[in-house]
Structure formats: structure tokens, C-alpha cells
Amino acid sequence: TPRPTRRPQHSQADTERERSASDITKQRALLSSARSACLPKMMLAYMDRAAAGAATERDALELTVVAADAAECAAARDFGGLVSARPAAVVRPASADDVASAIRAAARTTLLTVAARGNGHSVAGQAMSEGGLVLDMRAGAASRRQQMKLVSSGGGAAFADVPGGALWEEVLHWAVSNHGLAPASWTDYLRLTVGGTLSNGGVSGQSFRYGPQVSNVAELEVVTGEGECRVCSPSAHPDLFFAVLGGLGQFGVITRARIPLSPAPQTVKWARAWCTRASRSTRRTRSGW
Questions:
Q1: Do the domain assignments include residue 115?
Q2: Would the pLDDT of 45 be above 50?
Q3: Does the residue 279 lie in any domain?
Q4: Burial tier of 24 (Cβ tally within 10 Å: 0-12, 13-18, 19+)
Q5: CATH number of the domain encompassing residue 112
Q6: CATH number at residue 228
Q7: For residue range 157-216, what is the model confidence (pLDDT) as tens digits?
């Protein structure tokens, strides 16, 4: 009687190897679909190199970029310096449509996450994406002032339409020098992006009087996780509007914001308290209680 043949048992290593091969196939399919979505050529070049870096089994899930250039290295770090995460691709969108195209392409697979990066001042890796896509919202920074517009309402109120990737420093210079106006609330450090601080809160020394920056927004243009570009406000799509403000980028990418403006003062007073020893400051605080 012939002996029954045994089916070879798959070891855990074999299973992981098959899974890695499947992931590589999915990644290549994503690249093909991205081309059909007419994504920027620079993004496709990055994604092609990411797929090439995933050719080995060890790197299949990490999607490590081979011979990373300066932009990719910068996107792997932030101001906090506590976390390092190398993206598979750095996307430099020129418009909200580019942001939407990138998000739609990434949504076709579970292998890619998307993170919006402004000026890189997150402290715990919030603007990073390990093996995913990083949207460089500072792309085209030279044309930011050209994209800023002054909008007037019927009641005489003035607003600034500004890109989400613009620095508050750029917004302030543009508004004051061209129109003698300024936002009511801004951060003490101005080299932060509009979309970045509105995604966090925007608290500063002026917040006790004017509220945080998230309380001084009239309208937002947001690209959602489905890649849809929507305009929202307290009256139009309010759920999306209030979810995005302070939402840490989990509900959409801010590509434009309408900020209320008021007459800029001729002079301002800024007080800063210096402390050379933390122990002295804490002793004074405790004694004040």
C-alpha cells in the first residue's frame, strides 16, 4: 500500500516570506495606480525608489528609501529630536489638488500612511510617516505671498485667505506691510505654519485676551482622508470644521485658512521674564501659593 504523501508544513518564516512578497506586489500595484492618477512626477520618482528599496524580504514592510537625499532625511526628523521615521516618499504638492491626489493614491492600500509636514516643529513624530508618504506643505514657499488674498465681508470685516503651508511670519509681514492689518492671535514663535498651529491649537501670550488661533478662524479648505477637497466653516460642514481645528491632522489636511484681521497697532510692548535657575523659579512659585 503506497504511503500517503505529506503536505509540506509552512514554517513561520515561510509565512512571513509569502506575506512580504504579497506586500511588494501590492506596493507595485499602488505605483501603477498612482501613475494613472497623474500624480506629480517627483512623487512618482520617490515612490519608485521606495519600491526598489523594498526588493529584499527584510525591507519589504519597511520600504526603506535607498540613497536618501536631503529632503527625505529632513522628513525623518522633527524639532523634538526624540523620534526618527524614514518615509517611503516625500510629496511636494503645488496645490490642494496635488494633496488630494496623493491621499487618494495612498488610500488604495493599507501599507501607506500619510503625514502633513509644515516647518517640522512637531516634538514627537506627529509629522512623520514610517514607510509612508510625507506631504511637504512648505513646497513652493517662494510663491506663498502671491497666494495670499484680502477678503472683505459685507459688514466691513477683513479676512486673509492664506495657504496652509504659509508661515505665520509670512502672513504677518504680508498683512501689515500691504494692508496695515494683522491677525488678532498668533503664536509667540512665528516660524510655524498656519495649518500646523491650527491643527494643534495655537496658544500664545495673547490667548487670554483673544483666544487661541483655533478660535480665530472663519473658514477652512480641507482635504479629507478620502481625498476630497472641502470648504468648511461654522455654518458649512461644521462637524469637519471643528474636528480639524486642534485635530492633530487626523481628520484632514488644511490647505487654506481664512483668518480674521484687525488694524495693526503702531507699537507693541513685549515683556519677557528671564530665569537663570529653575530652582529659584519653582521656589518663588511655591511661596506665591
A1: yes
A2: no
A3: no
A4: buried
A5: 3.30.43.10
A6: 3.30.465.10
A7: 999 999 999 999 999 999 999 999 999 888 888 999 999 999 999 988 788 888 999 999
Domain count, the chain: 2
Regarding whether 149 and 112 lie in a shared domain, the answer is: no
Of 71, 104, 136, which residue sits at a domain end?
136
Task: Judge if 172 and 189 occupy the same domain.
Answer: yes
Rounded to two decimals, the pTM is 0.71
257 is in which domain, residue-wise?
Answer: 141-263
